[in-house]
User: Which sequence fits this backbone?
């Protein structure tokens, strides 16, 4: 309880990650055309097939998708994005690729220390392997050596393209095809870096793998790509966090995440998304338009998404599971907070294809200020998915009378042996609950914080410990000023 | 839209152009709206689950009145007319000789829309022009609707017998656009039953719009039975607008049509209004039945309850889309919605999209949706007591549906609906045995 009060004081009511690091960077020329795509590919020294793949995605995006404009079905409102008025590649200047942390620009290391991820300390103390992505490129990956002994590959996407082209070629775009949707196609054309994980047969990854994303440079978009492959019987837990400086203009973040789980494999993917949400008047902030999808290809495989979405001016994100293998399991646990003028349209898709596949959806939406929070989720049971089960629980909490909470589930059942259940509730923090707490000497803010944390408990308990602490802090900061 | 000049939309445009000077300003505006929108495509979010390709390709032109119902049709129609006040329409036109206007309390007006427009325009003026810019089917109806039922209840009048609006489609290859209007004065009460059916081989399209206006404290019970012919298309849009303290109870039973879509929009415009929307879908073979509702809580302290159940056999597809909107000023709203689909066969499909859109914080809103097969344990229980499989299934389905039918207030209407359900189940069992 008192910790959240401390946090609030400590963070002095502002976005604490809103600083800019003064670091020289190298950029692609402004704008987007085939040359931009070639430039990025050349910078990364990519093989010809990958450049072709990018160009194909770009042409599809330019010729088939751009003329029809961006998708408009989501409940988010924003002025049209000028895709030519942005830089599509920005890299911290560095002569040679670093071999160890000692060679990484000290300015960069300081930035990550400010963000609360001192790479060195993490390496030694916490035992979490971190891959940090700064603007467009991955700057350092810790713990690589130790993972290598077990055969686990954890590196930047560019490095994986160089070192493990066969894996990239097999799996890239196999879950999220290049032309999947507007932003995925854009990402496929101009993605600059990201993380790659491969866990070999039967290996249980001994530590949490973690990526930290940061947008630093102005007028840049970030387009990273993450690919995680869990071979038969393996197990991996992956954490992802994000921040950006405070700027008045909106910046685009369009990532693609692909997960592949083979027989008996398990992937747990946790996100704490704290991109700059814009100021209290709704100016600035990140547009977070992300495509995340996991394929449970093998029998008895499992993919679990947990997300805590507190940042971004606009969030458009549906981490999904394709339950192909028999008996495979998909899970989605989400807390989404919108305060001030934030908008979130987020949820999941559970596509049941294999027999006896099961999925669970728990979504908690919290709206405050003028925030608009939408849960949008699809549960589809294909004709062959005998015995499929789904349970969905969506709860919305409204704080204040100017915000909105919306629930839009799509339920499609094509097999009669399926059991699909959806439940949703909407409520506010009860006067009686508040009164009860205040009677016992808690301040209004503490009481709200406690009630909100209780509301989110089901999701927080799914988070790895380090993230659960951070998520609680973020939640209280995000809701600051929402209680009179 | 296929773009060919022989599709349904093109035939409507051509007919409208041919009518030339006959069409007034409002109709021409409606036609332009339709022309801009076209028949809804599945790319439109509200039509995501219902495609109109078959309707478009069926090349149905607005009915031109050349062929009227035969004597065989008339006898079929006559056999289904119950007692009590009614307006009967065949092929989109009022059939005065089959209608019955007797026994209504003084002051109650019941007449055809064409008559009302010709003789008493004040009854319908300003009540049919409100249009939703985005709805193509309503626009098309506004452009072509020639007739329909008009019922006006003065303040305080309570009808003890249901009023029936009956439409019979005899002609094939044609489209009928009907527009009904019910105005329930302050404190009045009535039950209105809308029935749609047709000659067995009629491949036609009925596109109806029903406007319901409920004054302060009025109670309107609206029952709709859609029992169109097996090759027919049916689209309908009902809009109920409720003043303070008014009560709207809707019940929709689908048992016919190859493709049907029933839209209900209920606007709770003033404090204390309440509505209850119930619906049962019985579908088999390749039927596609869509129920789409919007309940708009525009004022504080209103309540709404919605409960739809669908029974899907064969390769039938059941669609339910329901949106509950709670506007910022609509504090103290209570809204609840429940959608349940029962899949009887391997190839039946159910799609549901129950939607909550909430802009006020002091509200109690919830929704639920389920889909699944008959409960194996319940079947086992019945069979263990010597009841055959088909009988046991029918009993369970009947129970599933009866829970909603039993909520219908009027005893006569309820009995009628129950017998429709029983007949449908008996036929389903016969088909199963015949296979």
Assistant:
């Amino acid at each position: 309880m008192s910790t959240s009060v401390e946090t609030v004081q400590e963070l002095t009511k502002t976005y604490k990650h809103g600083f800019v690091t003064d670091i020289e960077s190298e950029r692609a020329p402004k704008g987007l055309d085939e040359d931009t795509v070639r430039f990025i590919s050349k910078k990364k020294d990519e093989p010809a097939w990958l450049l072709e793949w990018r160009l194909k995605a770009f042409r599809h995006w330019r010729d088939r998708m751009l003329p029809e404009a961006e998708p408009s079905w989501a409940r988010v409102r924003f002025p049209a994005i000028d895709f030519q008025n942005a830089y599509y590649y920005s890299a911290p200047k560095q002569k040679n690729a670093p071999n160890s942390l000692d060679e990484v620009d000290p300015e960069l290391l300081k930035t990550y220390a400010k963000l609360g991820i001192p790479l060195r300390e993490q390496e030694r103390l916490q035992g979490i392997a971190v891959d940090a992505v700064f603007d467009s490129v991955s700057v350092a990956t810790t713990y690589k050596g130790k993972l290598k002994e077990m055969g686990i590959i954890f590196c930047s996407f560019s490095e994986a393209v160089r070192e493990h082209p066969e894996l990239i070629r097999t799996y890239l775009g196999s879950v999220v095809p290049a032309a999947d949707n507007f932003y995925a196609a854009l990402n496929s054309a101009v993605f600059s870096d990201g993380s790659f994980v491969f866990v070999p047969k039967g290996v249980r990854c001994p530590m949490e793998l973690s990526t930290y994303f940061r947008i630093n440079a102005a007028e840049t978009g970030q387009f990273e790509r993450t690919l995680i492959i869990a071979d038969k019987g393996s197990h991996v837990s992956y954490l992802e966090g994000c921040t950006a400086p405070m700027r008045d203009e909106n910046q685009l973040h369009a990532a693609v995440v692909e997960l592949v789980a083979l027989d008996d494999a398990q992937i747990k993917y946790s996100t704490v998304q704290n991109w700059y949400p814009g100021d209290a008047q709704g100016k600035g902030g990140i547009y977070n338009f992300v495509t995340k999808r996991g394929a449970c290809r093998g029998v008895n495989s499992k993919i679990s998404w947990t997300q805590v979405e507190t940042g971004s001016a606009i969030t458009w994100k549906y981490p999904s599971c394709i339950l192909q293998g028999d008996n495979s399991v998909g899970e989605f646990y989400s807390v989404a907070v919108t305060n001030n003028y934030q908008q979130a349209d987020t949820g999941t898709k559970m596509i049941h294809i294999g027999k006896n596949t099961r999925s669970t959806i728990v979504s908690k939406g919290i709206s405050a200020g003028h925030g608009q929070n939408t849960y949008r989720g699809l549960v589809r049971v294909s004709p062959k998915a005998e015995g499929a089960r789904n349970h969905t629980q969506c709860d919305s909490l409204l704080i204040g009378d100017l915000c909105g909470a919306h629930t839009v589930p799509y339920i499609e059942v094509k097999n009669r042996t399926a059991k699909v259940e959806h439940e949703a509730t909407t409520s506010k923090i009860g006067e009686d609950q508040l009164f009860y707490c205040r009677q016992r000497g808690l301040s209004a803010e503490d009481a709200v914080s406690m009630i909100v944390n209780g509301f989110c408990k089901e999701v927080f308990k799914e988070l790895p410990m380090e993230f659960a602490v951070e998520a609680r802090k973020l939640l209280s900061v995000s809701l600051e000023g929402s209680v009179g | 839209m296929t773009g060919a000049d022989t599709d349904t939309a093109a035939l409507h445009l051509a007919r409208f152009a041919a009518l030339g000077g006959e069409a007034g300003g409002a109709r021409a505006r409606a036609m332009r709206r339709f022309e801009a929108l076209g028949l809804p495509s599945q790319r439109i979010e509200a039509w995501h689950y219902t495609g109109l390709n078959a309707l478009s390709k069926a090349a149905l032109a607005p009915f031109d009145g050349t062929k009227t119902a035969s004597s065989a049709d008339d006898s079929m129609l006559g056999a289904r007319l119950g007692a009590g006040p009614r307006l009967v329409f065949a092929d989109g036109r009022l059939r005065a000789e089959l209608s019955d206007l007797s026994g209504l309390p003084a002051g109650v007006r019941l007449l055809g829309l064409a008559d009302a427009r010709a003789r008493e325009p004040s009854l319908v003026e300003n009540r049919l022009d409100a249009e939703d810019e985005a709805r193509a089917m309503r626009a098309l109806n506004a452009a072509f609707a020639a007739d329909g039922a008009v019922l006006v209840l003065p303040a305080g009048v309570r009808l003890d017998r249901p009023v029936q609006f009956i439409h019979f489609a005899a002609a094939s290859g044609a489209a009928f656009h009907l527009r009904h209007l019910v105005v329930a004065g302050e404190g009045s009460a009535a039950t209105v039953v809308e029935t749609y059916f047709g000659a067995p081989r009629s491949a036609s399209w009925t596109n109806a719009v029903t406007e319901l206006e409920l004054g302060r404290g009025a109670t309107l019970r609206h029952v709709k039975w859609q029992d169109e012919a097996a090759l027919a298309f049916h689209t309908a849009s009902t809009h109920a607008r409720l003043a303070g303290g008014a009560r709207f109870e809707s019940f929709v039973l689908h048992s016919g049509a190859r493709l049907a879509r029933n839209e209900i929009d209920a606007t709770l415009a003033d404090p204390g209004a309440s509505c209850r929307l119930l619906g049962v879908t019985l579908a088999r073979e390749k039927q596609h039945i869509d129920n789409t509702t919007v309940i708009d809580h525009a004022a504080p302290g209103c309540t709404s309850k919605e409960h739809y159940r669908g029974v899907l056999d064969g390769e039938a597809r059941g669609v339910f889309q329901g949106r509950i909107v709670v506007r910022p000023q609509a504090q103290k709203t209570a809204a609840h919605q429940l959608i349940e689909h029962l899949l009887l066969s391997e190839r039946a499909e159910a799609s549901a999209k129950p939607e909550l859109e909430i802009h006020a914080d002091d509200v109690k809103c919830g929704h639920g949706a389920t889909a699944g097969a008959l409960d194996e344990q319940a079947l086992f229980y019945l069979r263990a007591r010597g009841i055959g499989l088909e009988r046991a299934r029918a009993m369970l389905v009947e129970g599933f549906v009866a829970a909603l039918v039993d909520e219908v207030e009027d005893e006569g209407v309820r009995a009628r609906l129950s017998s429709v359900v029983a007949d449908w189940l008996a036929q389903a069992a016969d088909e199963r045995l015949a296979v």
Observations:
- Chain B has two domains: 65-375, 376-435.
- The mean pLDDT of chain B is 90.
- Residues 376-435 of chain B form one domain.
- The first helix of chain B runs from residue 8 to 19.
